[in-house]
Design brief:
Strand content: 25-35%
Distance between the termini: 51 Å
CATH topology: Endonuclease I-creI
CATH class: Alpha Beta
Number of strands: 4
Strand order of the largest sheet: 1-2-4-3
Shape: elongated
Number of helices: 3
CATH superfamily: Homing endonucleases
Order of helices and strands: EEHEEHH
Largest sheet: 4 strands, antiparallel
CATH architecture: Roll
């Protein structure tokens, strides 16, 4: 069984978006192949339940690598709407971040 997740974490008024692809440790080589093909991400192996996960946390990597994959190979309607919402949320965050940097860091 394959699990594909987008996780949104909010902590101390900061948020992060994570893409996670999980497999049984029996198929660990598949995750390493995906990592080598994309050239980004990390692999985490959970010992207690024989589960391995490929994760990407870098928002720029998500924007430039992962979202275009989902644009090219669209999913079922509901999943596609979720992906589009996450992309809009990420773009909104980047716009706010640029405005904050202009206003408070660059004076």
């Amino acid at each position: 069984m394959v699990m594909v997740l987008f996780l949104l974490f909010v902590k101390n008024n900061k948020w992060s978006l994570t893409f996670k692809l999980s497999q049984s440790t029996y198929n660990l080589r598949v995750l390493y192949f995906i990592k080598s093909q994309l050239g980004i991400g990390s692999i985490y192996v959970e010992k207690r339940n024989s589960l391995a996960s490929f994760r990407i946390r870098d928002r720029f990597a998500l924007e430039s690598v992962i979202f275009p994959i989902f644009d090219k190979y669209s999913l079922l309607l509901l999943n596609n709407l979720i992906i589009l919402s996450l992309k809009k949320l990420m773009l909104f965050y980047l716009i706010l971040l640029k405005q904050f940097r202009k206003r408070y860091i660059n004076f």
